[in-house]
Model the fold of this input.
Amino acid sequence: MLLVEDLHKSFEDFTAVDGANLQVRQGELVAVIGPNGAGKTTLFNLITGHLKADRGRIRFLDREINRMAAHEICRQGIARSFQIANIFHRLSVFRNVQVSVLSQKKLSRSLFRPAQTLVVEETRRILESVGLLGKQLDIAGSLSHGDKRILEIAIALGNEPQLLILDEPTAGMSPEETASTMELVKRLARDQGLTILFCEHDMDVVFDVATHIMVMQHGRTLIQGTPEEVRRNATVQDAYLGGA
Amino acid sequence: MTRSLILSRSSFGWSAALLLVLLLVPAWAGRFTIYILAFVFVMALLAMSLNLLVGHGGIYQFHHAAFYGVGAYTAGLIAAKTAWPVWVGFCAGPLMAAAAGWVIGLFCVRLNKLYFGMLQISLGSLIWIIALRWYSLTAGDDGIHGIRMPELLSGSVTIYYFLLAVVTVCLLSLYLVYKSPFGVTLRAIRDNPQRCEAVGINVRRHQLLAIIIATFFAGVAGVLFVVLEGSIFPDMLFWVLSLEILIMCLLGGWFTFFGPVVGAAIMVTLRTFVGSVTEYWTMVLGIVLILLIFFLPEGIMGINFRNWSRRRSRRAAARAAEDTDAAG
Done:
């Protein structure tokens, strides 16, 4: 489904991604792990078009997406959440998701129909699936941190993605919120047949949820494999799992 | 049914009452009051058109008066220098303003925030220089005065009703845009353009469309000024007027739909009545602005929005408390 080959990205003197490789197959839950500064977020930004790669290839569903703008990549079927809650703070929870559904249905530029009558059912269904329907009229900026992160996932779902990319979906959450968020992620993958690529620092979460893991270090791919393969890898144990 | 989908019952009631009062004004008011109100209509439309970009789109259109001037000059020059019917100028004015908005917007949307604003001021000032220096066409800083209007638009009351009708239709159109999927998307772009890109929205294209719509209505306001005053002059395109329109949006509340109308009414009233007492009326405006920044940072109509947000937050907090109680 997604193939990343020999990807490079530098910022002046600093090389953030230095020959990363990644493969994601349909239906997998792939975790990208690595220490801070390993290049995980930059890799996600490159895949979703928020940064342009210096070198390398990104193919999604057999189509080259390297040169596409972020909004075009989204239209190919890739949606994402960001590391810091990235929502529409002044809009209501309902509108946050509706914006994304309207975009998906190519209604964003419609001028002569009241928005409040459009894609209402679709929007409510998504909010219900993530448990935010009861807060649909709240201003998004007033939500708790955990709810903002969930709202981000709901916004991404509005695009009916085939591949959902989550950048540290549980960052800043309490253990209870982390558990329920990851439960939600698993449920979405199962019920909606979503393929999910995520990065996460909590190793318990990673090894519990992921079907495959890619380990990054200094912008490079150290290894990609099943959790067992990764756990057994000596280099990974030394570099990241602390010899565990 | 349609009405209830677009306007809430209270908004509809207030708007209808205001329209009724404005329709009845010529029955008791003198010529001066009618003129001032007509001028408020023009400024209100101009401010509303700017607010579509600044308030709802987060687009730093710092030199909006340029497009007001393009609309006015197109209509004025066609009326004064050609044998074409005046109505041709009335239609051409907004279209030319929108075309100018499109061309300038094409360059500006490639930049962000302040850089957008700076380039926009520069390109808008070019239009002002053309109006100021092209003597053979525009009569330079003298401007053109005494532009004749058709018989149909002769008396001050007739002009008042004409302006009221056009402005009502324009505000209704802007309201439909505000409530449309495009309006919602525009507010989302204002809040977070990066997120919009990530949900498949072509931000630049939406911003460009917003600029075309806003400059079209600025052009309509320019035409209405020509109808009201029978004059065109370069100050109409000067950046000082752009600043005044921006202040109107700030005063009234730029996150609200009707805020700029209130701001325009306050500005015109201050200029007219305080300006007749002292030439330093801008000092009074300065004091009003300082008070506003401290006590009503979201403008006069923003009070409602703040209260509404607070009510929502309180309701959310109450619900959270109920959930906790239930869980406990």
Observations:
- The domain at 1-77+163-244 of chain A is CATH 3.40.50.300 (Rossmann fold).
- Strands of chain A lie at 2-11, 14-24, 29-33, 55-60, 63-64, 78-81, 163-167, 195-199, 212-217, 220-225.
- Chain A has two domains: 1-77+163-244, 84-160.
